[in-house]
Specification:
The protein contains 4 helices and 4 strands. It has 127 residues and is an alpha+beta fold. The chain has a single domain, classed as Roll (Diaminopimelate Epimerase, Chain A, domain 1). Strand 2 and strand 3 form a beta hairpin.
């Protein structure tokens, strides 16, 4: 059920990289704030990736990812579907992915992620 909400969140026309030096790049992220994130992602990973891929293709996005915040255990789990997004997030957020998924202890909100990603892209250091 929650996987359907991912598609709804991604329907927004807001480009999170607006104001970035490379403003031709378009990024969307979906965010879920739930409990039992590990169980949710494990049980829905393929559905999540299919939805992200469909939205990326339909909207001609450069980057798209899902961040799930576990409200009880205070961590993020991030899902990506392509190497470029993975490399950017690994560099900007200091995380490592395995099979398109990473877990980061502590809660990192979108308003904290986006400036880090913009800074990396503006610096020209992004992969």
């Amino acid at each position: 059920m929650a996987a359907l909400h991912i598609a709804e969140v991604l329907r927004s026309d807001k480009n999170l990289l607006n104001g970035c030096a490379n403003s031709f790049l378009i990024m969307k992220l979906a965010r879920l704030e739930i409990i039992d994130v590990d169980v949710f992602v494990d049980e829905n990973l393929e559905k999540i990736k299919k939805i992200l891929a469909k939205v990326k293709d339909k909207k001609s996005l450069n980057f798209v990812f899902l961040t799930c915040i576990d409200l009880e255990k205070a961590f993020n789990k991030i899902v990506v579907i392509d190497d470029q997004t993975q490399k950017i997030l690994e560099s900007a957020l200091d995380v490592k992915f395995k099979n398109g998924v990473t877990k980061r202890n502590g809660i990192l909100m979108r308003k904290e992620m986006v400036p880090k990603i913009k800074e990396l892209i503006d610096s020209g250091r992004f992969p």
